[in-house]
Amino acid sequence: MKQEYFARFLEKQRKKIDEEKWIEGTRICRDPGQEFVTNWINKNAEKFRKEHSLGELACAFKELEEMLVDLKNQVIDINKLIEYVQDIQDKIEIAQEALQDRE
Hints:
The chain has helices spanning 2-28, 33-102. The protein is mostly helical. It has one domain.
């Protein structure tokens, strides 16, 4: 899991650097080169890492909320099933008592 998270982080950071490098290259009409990448890392990597972590946490929290809703719905369904089974048991008992009364 940690490796997957880190791989996703590196891929997003690489895309962000490439995007900003392309914008800078368009602005100055040439490739800003490796120096731009190094400067970006020195200036922006820590902030990007924090923002990425917060984003990942927000996604995980949303997934947990959705799982909780699903679990709650399953509990409701189970309770409905229990009520249904109890209702059938009550009807069976009434039917059995009615048969006994006839005998």
